[in-house]
Write a structure and sequence with these properties.
Blueprint: H1 3-19, H2 22-42, E1 47-48, E2 54-55, H3 56-86, H4 89-94, H5 100-128, H6 138-159, H7 166-183, H8 197-201, H9 205-217, H10 227-247
Antiparallel strand pairs: 1-2
Helix pairs in contact: 1-5, 2-3, 2-5, 3-5, 3-6, 3-7, 3-9, 5-6, 6-9, 6-10, 9-10
Amino acid sequence: MSGLALVGHQFRYDQKAFWRNPASVFFTVMFPVILFLILAVVFSGEDVDVRGGIDATTYYVPAIMSLAIISATMQTLAMTLVIAREDGRLKRGRGTPMPPWVFIAGRVGNSIVVALMMLVLLAAIGALFGADVPWDRLPAILLTLVIGAASFCCLGIALTALIPSQDAAAAIVNALLLPLYFLSGVFIPEDQLPDGVIAFADIFPVRHFFDAFFDAYVPAGGPAVSWDNLAIVALWGAGGLVLAIRYFRWTPRSG
């Protein structure tokens, strides 16, 4: 069987495993939807003083999309790979004729497909609340999503090296990402954040990905593709890839 056929087989398995896990489906798919609905209802009719002023619902569509894509890639990969490692599934898979990269490719493919699904789902829900879908910017949106998803997949795989056990996986991943969501303007618009917060958030890729996705999704007179922000996200992804190649483990760290 060719490598691509093996990747397709592994991808189908990972898709079935994902949708049969209620906890994964809730936190990856339903949690961002619930967050958006809460924010859209609470701030309905209000304006956000960002990029000349926009409706709050329009602001939160790309904001929660950014969160959903990061959740479907970096967060999901880091946690599921650590659980598979500590359960011994990675070690057993390494001992089969299947090339190791096929296992990773299947997980990454599953994460990107879920990210694309979240893009469609949140865009549809946002349209119901009056946030227009920018069809003319679809190529820029997809380019931003692909670069961001690939980069955060690399970061998620690299992050597994820092997580000692499956019990610590969710705590460590959420402790890293949740503060960055607040500091990067995902939950709280940047005009309402104290001075210096955004400058600090600019060190990390979450802020730059949100900026790039916002530029792609919300027409504000500027270019649809934010190359400078995407370059920073891609650099973080490249760094994550180097660390993943160097430190990723196939054998359990505990026991």
